[in-house]
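Support request from a user on the community tier.

User writes: "When I paste my structure tokens into the form, the page sometimes reloads and wipes my input. The last time it worked, I copied everything first. Here is what I submitted, just in case something in the input itself triggers the reload:"
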């Protein structure tokens, strides 16, 4: 009799069709669920606001990560050694924007991090978010940019007073590995096309070497379509017909320009996730340029958009092999954007950073 009574609630659930199944997506190895340490660099300007947003959401989800926080600022001459040691120990870092002084010969700490940790691939995912109106629809572009060489790497010197020489170095080794990363990404993520962005019609040797490397790697991935586009035409095509692009692979400087253009088309830099990855380490941050890092008004009013870094932290969770937590976070953020009640000013709303964070936490499954 007791058995029958216990079975009744289950029978009612089955009849109502409410039984939820949880598919087994992968078998974790013993110990994979242990909390993982992550180096956290809040950074400058809006950085502490948006990194704090991530901390709150991670705590609300009970995500299996904990942060080792370090105070780093863009006007420092070098990244402190203890910070580098922490990233090398933890393998993963989450960071806010670091303000880079204009001119004056001060080296960018962002570039220092990329070179010191050999974070050779920068990835920015530029896609439309449901409910966020944009000029173009069906935009879903992944910009993969070589991160360690080219004219963006800052190799400059003054030859004589009034004459500055800036070096653009392109190597076969770096070009091949970024091309391989782009095709691997496309293959593993069921992407159909890789487009190499270049200016080989003018820089025949440097960009020519980059293209040659991309073509060689493309032959090893016959299932993925490969094409090439000159960077100036690329920018024009992006603003007129962005839906034609899938995965884009670029040298260093072009990638910075192309990623920001694609981000603006797909909804703005405040919603685009990204990261920098190498063979051993990964640093996750806002995908497109954190141009608002120095806008004091946003900092004072506490109205910075946390969406980009929240989505970047979801990428980080997936990188750490916590896919269910990543899915929960992404779903919550997209539901908040879709409903439209809580949006910061850059997305047409009047919400504060904290109001968006509270809304995301409320939507967590």
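"...and here is what came back when it finally went through:"
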């Amino acid at each position: 009799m007791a058995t029958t009574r216990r079975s009744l609630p289950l029978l009612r659930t089955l009849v109502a069709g409410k039984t939820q199944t949880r598919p087994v997506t992968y078998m974790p190895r013993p110990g994979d669920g242990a909390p993982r340490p992550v180096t956290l660099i809040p950074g400058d300007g809006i950085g502490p606001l948006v990194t704090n947003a991530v901390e709150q959401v991670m705590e609300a989800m009970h995500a299996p990560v904990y942060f080792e926080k370090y105070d780093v600022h863009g006007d420092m001459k070098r990244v402190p050694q203890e910070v580098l040691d922490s990233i090398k120990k933890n393998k993963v870092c989450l960071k806010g924007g670091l303000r880079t002084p204009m001119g004056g010969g001060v080296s960018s700490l962002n570039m220092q991090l990329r070179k010191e940790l050999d974070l050779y691939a920068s990835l920015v995912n530029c896609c439309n978010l449901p409910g966020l109106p944009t000029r173009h629809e069906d935009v879903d572009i992944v910009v993969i940019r070589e991160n360690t060489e080219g004219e963006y790497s800052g190799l400059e010197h003054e030859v004589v007073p009034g004459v500055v020489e800036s070096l653009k170095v392109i190597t076969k080794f770096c070009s091949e590995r970024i091309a391989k990363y782009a095709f691997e990404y496309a293959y593993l993520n069921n992407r159909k096309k890789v487009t190499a962005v270049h200016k080989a019609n003018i820089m025949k040797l440097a960009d020519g070497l980059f293209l040659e490397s991309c073509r060689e790697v493309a032959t090893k991935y016959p299932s993925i379509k490969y094409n090439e586009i000159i960077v100036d035409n690329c920018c024009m095509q992006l603003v007129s017909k962005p839906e034609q692009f899938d995965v884009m692979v670029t040298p260093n400087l072009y990638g910075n320009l192309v990623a920001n253009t694609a981000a603006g088309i797909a909804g703005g830099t405040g919603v685009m996730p990204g990261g920098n990855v190498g063979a051993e380490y990964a640093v996750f941050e806002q995908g497109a340029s954190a141009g608002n890092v120095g806008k004091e008004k946003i900092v004072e009013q506490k109205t910075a958009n946390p969406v980009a870094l929240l989505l970047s932290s979801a990428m980080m969770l997936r990188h750490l092999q916590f896919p269910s937590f990543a899915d929960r976070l992404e779903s919550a953020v997209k539901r908040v954007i879709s409903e439209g009640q809580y949006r910061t000013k850059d997305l047409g709303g009047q919400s504060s950073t904290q109001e968006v964070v509270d809304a995301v936490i409320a939507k967590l499954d």
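Agent notes: The reload is a front-end session timeout and is unrelated to the input. The first strand starts at residue 36 and ends at 41. The CA atoms of residues 119 and 278 lie 4 Å apart. Escalated to web team.
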